[in-house]
Write a structure and sequence with these properties.
Helices cover 34% and strands 21% of the residues. With 493 residues, the protein is α/β, with parallel strands linked by helices. The longest helix has 18 residues. It binds NADP nicotinamide-adenine-dinucleotide phosphate (NAP).
Length: 493
Amino acid sequence: MSSQPHRVTVIPGDGVGPEVVRSAVRIIDAAGVRIEWEEAEAGAEVFRRGDTSGVPQATRDSIERSRVVLKGPLETPVGFGEKSANVTLRKLFETYANVRPARELPGVPTRYAGEGIDLIIVRENVEDLYAGIEHMETPDVGQCLKVISRKGSEKVIRYAFELARREGRAKVTCATKANIMKLTEGLFKKVFEELSAEYPEIAAEHLIIDNVAHQLAKDPAQFDVIVTTNLNGDIISDLASGLVGGLGFASSGNYGDSVAIFEAVHGSAPKYAGKDLINPTALILSSVMMLRHLGELAAAERIEDAVLATLEEGRAMTQDLVRQSGGDVDTAASTTGFTDAVIANLGKRPAAVAPKRGTALAGAVPPTPMPAWSYGPERYAAIERRTIGLDIFIETDLSADVLGPDLERLAGAGFRLEFVESRGTKVYPSVGLSSDGVRLLRARFVTPDGAAALDAALLGLQGRVAGSHPGWTHVEKLHVFDGAEAFTKAQGQ
Ligand code: NAP
C-alpha cells in the first residue's frame, strides 16, 4: 500500500460514464490504494452551457496538477461546436500514444477462444486525419488534410518499441497504407524502419493495413505489438476488441510525455444510462492500466486477477456477457452486482488464464522518456530546398480540354503546365484515362527546367490564373527537399 496518496482527476462523463467510473473507483478504494480523487467535468453538459470545447478551464487546471486522468465516455452533442471533447483532451495534453491491449479473457466466449490472443495496438493519437483540418473546396467537394510528421511518428513508434522492450515482447508490426499514401503513411513506415535498427532484439515487420485487418480476422494470435497511424489504429483496435469479447472489455490508455488519460473504448451507450446494467469491465481494466502507470503494480495485479476470477467463475455476468454466452438475461448481474463480486474476489487468482506473452503487462511503466529531439532550426537549415512550381485547384464548369489550353497560355514564359487532373487522375493532356468530373480540377505548373522559382514569379502565376478563373480555391507550393520531389504524381502522369 502506498504511503502518499496519488492525485487523480476523475471525469465521470456522460451516459453510462458515471456508473462505470463509480465501479472502478469503488474497486480501487476497496483494494486499499490511496487516491485523492479530484472530480472534474467534461462533455455534454459543458457543451450545452456554451463552452464549445467541452472541457472547462477548471478541468484543465485539475489535469495540470494531477497529470493522471480516469474518465468516463464523453458525448459530443450535435449543434454545440461539434468538436469531440475526447479528441480535445487528447490534443490539449498531447497524449500521442493510444495503447489498447486485446487479450483473451476467461469466461468470455469468442470465436478465437483458446488461441491465446495477447496483442497491444499502439495508435498515434493526435495527427493524421484527426487533425480535423477540413474544407469544402466547392459547395459539393470536401477535403480533409492528412497530417503526418516525422516527429509525431518518431514519438509513437519509439513508444511502441520501448513498450515491447519493457514487456519482453518479441515483435512490433508497423501497419500503414504506404503503398498508396507515400508521403504520409510512407513517412511513418520510413521512420519505423529507421528506428527498428535501435531495437535489434525485437523483430520488426511492416504490413499493409488491409492485410493486417485480414490477418487479424484469420490468425490474430500471430500479432504481438502493432503500431500504426491514427485512423488505421482507430479501426483495427475496434476490430481487435471484437476478437476478445467486444466493447464491454476494451480498455485503453492515452500516454503523453507528462499526462496520461485512461478510459474505456466504448462510448456513453445512452440507452443504458442510469439503468445499472452496463458492463464496467472495460473501465475497470483501464483503471488497472492507470494503477500500473502510478507504480501501484501489486494493486493492479490484485484487481486484474479479481476481474479475471469473476469472469471465469461466471456467477456475476452482466447482460452483454449473458447474451454472448447464450444465457437468460433475466439472470444477469447489475453493474453494482458485478462490482460487488469483483470486490469480494480481491485476493483470488483465476485458475486458468492464458499465459501472458510479455514479462510485464500493458502500461506497466510510465511513458517512455523521449530522447532530446533533433528538430531544431539547424536540422532544417541544413536541408537544401527549392520551390519549382504550384498546384492550383480550380472550381470550374469547363472541361479539361477547354481549361488546359487556357492555362497553358496563362503559364507564361516562366512556367509550363504539366497536367490538369480530376480527383488524382490526369485528364489533360489526355492519356486516355477518364474521370467523372466533380467541378474541381487541379493544375500543376512547374518551371521548365526544374529551376527554383522566386516568390514574385509564383505570385504572378497565381494572380494570372485567379484573374481568368475566379473559382481558384487552393494552392500548394511544389517543393524539392535535398533533391527529392516533395509531392506525388497524378495517376496516369
Ligand atoms: P457506444 O456508446 O459505445 O455504444 C454502442 C453499443 O455498444 C451499445 O449500445 C452496446 O451494444 C455496446 N456497448 C457499449 N459499451 C458497452 C459496455 N460497457 N458493455 C457492454 N456493451 C457495451 O457507441 P455509440 O452509441 O456510437 O456512441 C454514443 C456516444 O458516445 C456518442 O455521443 C459518441 O460520440 C460517444 N463516444 C464517446 C467515446 C469516448 O468518450 N471515448 C467513445 C465512443 C463514442 P448493445 O446495444 O448491443 O447492447
